[in-house]
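Students often ask why inverse folding is considered easier than folding. One informal answer: many sequences map to the same fold, so there is more than one right answer. In these notes we will look at a single instance of the problem. The structure comes first.
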């Protein structure tokens, strides 16, 4: 049987993971077509800016929880056997303050802040901290082994694994999703996988207005944090957060942050940066040996826009003219920690659609 031509639009973590999993099946010729590729840094391209880590915020019993659960299995295997992927284990501590209840951050983290979240039987070494282990001002906390992903290593690693499986990469900009049919005049495109993230809100033929940015501002420093820390909220506003994680292989420590829905601003806010650094030093004194933010050795200030979709990640297929479209976008801040589960669901739809098409 002739190869089926599949084009994946988008080279973020969703697009690359979907292309990689699809490339493991025979009978497909896969092309990743994207405006931005790993190595690029652009506000439209969320994946390079991410922390990134595994701290599930998906609710118990949802598809999102299943996608997160499936992804942990892969990340665990990569951390054990493939350090070149830029993924490493790190102790994670989630700290809860009772006065944050009802805040935007606490609502976002509701499952993560539970004393018995669904993932307690998924991640290693889960436990609740005793009262005498709590940091000052913290009412309760959980601890478990997580992973942190150095995106500067992981995204190129995904590309390299795709290339091993003969996936083709092309730079392309599409005004409308059906323009994919013109990508290569010598090939007839059989199916498109839409992994355009935030740009799904602007891509013709999709224009999903339920996708909005959730602006995240971070500071990357050379100071080393020995553990990952996340707080239930801050005293500086509902749309600000406090989290700390150290990337593998000298990737620096990421401190954040913010969760500013509807905000497209690409430039760092220096006042927010100061608040981020003050919160991080207070939550993790080891960063500066108990000194102030002036001893933080800053690598860069950065802003990324999480592609948040009302109703959660869109993974579904539709027929558009003669072309099948499979969508995989809108994971918000869960893009990495749900990446393999979402990609597996998308690949299942791709294979089902092409099987139907073959019968027709």
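Output (designed amino acids):
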């Amino acid at each position: 049987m002739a190869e089926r031509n599949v084009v994946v639009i988008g080279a973020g973590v969703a697009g690359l993971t979907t292309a990689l999993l699809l490339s493991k099946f025979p009978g497909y010729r896969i092309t990743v077509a994207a405006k931005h590729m790993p190595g690029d840094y652009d506000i439209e391209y969320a994946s390079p800016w991410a922390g990134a880590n595994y701290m599930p915020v998906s609710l118990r019993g949802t598809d999102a929880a299943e996608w997160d659960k499936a992804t942990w299995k892969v990340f665990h295997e990569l951390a054990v056997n493939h350090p070149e992927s830029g993924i490493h284990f790190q102790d994670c501590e989630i700290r809860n303050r009772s006065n944050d209840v009802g805040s935007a951050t606490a609502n976002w983290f509701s499952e993560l802040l539970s004393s018995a979240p669904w993932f307690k039987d998924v991640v290693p070494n889960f436990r609740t901290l005793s009262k005498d282990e709590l940091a000052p001002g913290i009412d309760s906390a959980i601890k478990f082994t997580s992973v942190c992903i150095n995106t500067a290593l992981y995204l190129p690693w995904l590309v390299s694994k795709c290339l091993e499986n003969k996936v083709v990469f092309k730079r392309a900009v599409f005004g409308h999703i059906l323009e994919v049919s013109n990508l290569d005049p010598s090939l007839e495109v059989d199916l498109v996988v839409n992994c355009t993230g935030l740009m799904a809100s602007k891509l013709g033929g999709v224009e999903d207005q339920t996708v909005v940015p959730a602006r995240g501002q971070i500071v990357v420093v050379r100071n080393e944090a020995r553990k990952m820390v996340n707080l239930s909220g801050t005293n500086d506003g509902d749309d600000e957060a406090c989290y700390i994680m150290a990337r593998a292989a000298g990737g620096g420590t990421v401190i954040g942050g913010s969760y500013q829905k509807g905000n497209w601003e690409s430039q760092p806010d220096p006042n927010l940066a100061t608040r981020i650094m003050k919160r991080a030093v207070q939550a993790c004194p080891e960063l500066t040996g108990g000194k102030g933010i002036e001893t933080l050795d800053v690598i860069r200030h950065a802003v990324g826009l999480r592609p948040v979709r009302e109703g959660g990640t869109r993974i579904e297929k539709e027929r558009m003219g003669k072309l099948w479209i499979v969508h995989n976008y809108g994971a918000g801040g869960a893009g990495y920690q749900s990446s393999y589960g979402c990609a597996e669901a998308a690949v299942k739809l791709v294979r089902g659609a092409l099987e139907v098409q073959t019968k027709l």
